[in-house]
Design a protein that fits this description.
This protein has four helices and six strands, in the order H-E-H-E-E-E-E-E-H-H. Strand 2 and strand 3 form a beta hairpin. It has a domain of about 50 residues. The chain is mainly beta. It is found in: Cell outer membrane; Bacterial flagellum basal body. Belongs to the FlgH family.
């Protein structure tokens, strides 16, 4: 008994001494860190305008790397699924031996009144299964975040990325977004809806006292990981 207690204590101490590897908070690991510069255009000889200046006839919509575009996040998702399964099978077997290597002529069998050669084998099998399942999910997220154009693709689409941190009463919240938008989907107010963002990765998470209370303690997580049943 003491040997098992010592092994458990050593295991607990080893778990406590293990380094704590926390993943990077938010999508920083997948986020590009540099803005891909746009290829400079060839300057026309005798032109009065430089390529780095704003176009006199263009609007204020984002159209080049480094520009800022606002994304209105409005995501709603709802799904439900029901499944029911009911199966059954019944089998019965009856068999007798009338002539097999002289067994029916055996005096030992014939003298036994409980032996019926026409009904020597009998089996019944019954199997049934009833199962049902139901799942549902409902999600709603509304937010606004400013993003930056980090790359202009060859077809003119814009790759955007943005993140925002908010601290409220020692509770830190994080909103991150990345994806690809078309310049045509950006409104005159330089705002694009999240439903028009291709390959969108939206992150909304937080850390603090409230987030810590939403998960079980370290001992409960340890027991849950090693519990075999």
């Amino acid at each position: 008994m003491y040997k098992y207690i010592i092994v458990f204590c050593v295991f607990a101490l080893a778990c406590g001494c293990a380094p704590k590897h926390e993943p990077q908070w938010g999508p920083e690991a997948n986020a590009p860190q540099k803005v891909v510069p746009q290829k400079p255009q060839r300057a026309s000889q005798g032109s009065l305008w430089n390529t780095g200046e704003a176009n006199l006839f263009s609007d204020n919509k984002a159209q080049a790397p480094g520009d800022i575009v606002t994304v209105s996040i409005s995501e709603q998702a709802q799904a439900s699924k029901d499944a029911t399964t009911d199966t059954g099978r019944t089998s019965s077997v009856d068999a007798g031996i009338n002539n097999l290597f002289g067994i029916p002529n055996s005096q030992a069998l014939l003298s036994n009144p409980n032996v019926d050669l026409k009904n020597l084998v009998g089996a019944n099998f019954n199997n049934s299964f009833v199962g049902s399942g139901e799942t549902s999910r409902n999600a709603n997220l509304s937010a606004t975040i400013a993003t930056q154009v980090i790359e202009q693709l060859p077809n003119g689409n814009l790759r955007i990325f943005g993140r925002k941190r908010v601290m409220v009463n020692n509770e830190e919240e994080f909103i991150g977004l990345s994806g690809i938008v078309r310049p045509e989907d950006i409104s005159a107010q330089n705002v694009v809806d999240s439903s028009y963002v291709l390959d969108a990765e939206i992150t909304y998470t937080g850390r603090g006292a409230i987030s810590d209370k939403q998960k079980p303690g370290w001992l409960m997580r340890l027991i849950d990981n090693v519990w075999p049943f």
